[in-house]
């Protein structure tokens, strides 16, 4: 969280709000290793990608295809 400047407890409320607005999609991912918790994976929707392209910056860090990571 130090790199983004966001305080603890900020990221997930933002992701949930963006999901409600249709800007990102979320899916549960089963753990790769037994004993690890399941987790959410997020990706931009077409609307989210279009909005990101309108944001200031050159867009060089945006993926060309959305994918869960």
Pairing-aware structural class of the strands and helices?
A: alpha+beta
* CATH level-1 class of the domain at 11-54: Mainly Alpha
Q: Which second-level CATH architecture of the domain at 11-54 applies? A: Orthogonal Bundle
CATH homologous group name of the domain at 11-54: Winged helix-like DNA-binding domain superfamily/Winged helix DNA-binding domain
Radius of gyration: 14 Å
Distance between the termini: 18 Å
Shape: globular
List keywords for this structure.
two-stranded antiparallel sheet, alpha+beta, Arc Repressor Mutant, subunit A
Explain what the structure shows.
The protein contains two helices and two strands, in the order αββα. By secondary structure, it is α+β, with helices and mostly antiparallel strands. It has a domain at 11-54: Winged helix-like DNA-binding domain superfamily/Winged helix DNA-binding domain (Arc Repressor Mutant, subunit A, Orthogonal Bundle). The protein has a two-stranded antiparallel sheet with strand order 1-2. The longest helix has 10 residues, at 11-20.
């Amino acid at each position: 969280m130090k790199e983004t400047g966001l305080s603890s407890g900020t990221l997930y409320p933002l992701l949930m709000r963006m999901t409600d607005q249709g800007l990102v999609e979320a899916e549960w991912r089963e753990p790769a290793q037994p004993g690890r918790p399941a987790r959410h994976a997020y990706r931009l929707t077409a609307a989210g990608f279009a909005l990101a392209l309108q944001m200031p910056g050159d867009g060089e860090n945006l993926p060309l295809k959305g994918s869960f990571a």
